[in-house]
Amino acid sequence: MEKFSKLKALIAGVEADADKFYNSGNGAAGTRVRKAMQDLKGLAQEIRTEVTEKKNAK
Known about the structure:
Layout: H1 2-24, H2 27-57
C-alpha cells in the first residue's frame, strides 16, 4: 500500500506541470511531465510485481 500512496503523490505532484504544459504551452513543464510519467511507469510495474507475488503466495 506504501507504493500505491507514492503513486498517488507523484500524480498529484505533476498536476501543476501538466496544466502548465497543456494550457500554457510551457515546454519545460512538458519535460517534467515526461519524466514523471517515466517514474510512474516504473512504480506501476513495481506495484504489479508486488501484487502478483502476494496473489501467488496464497
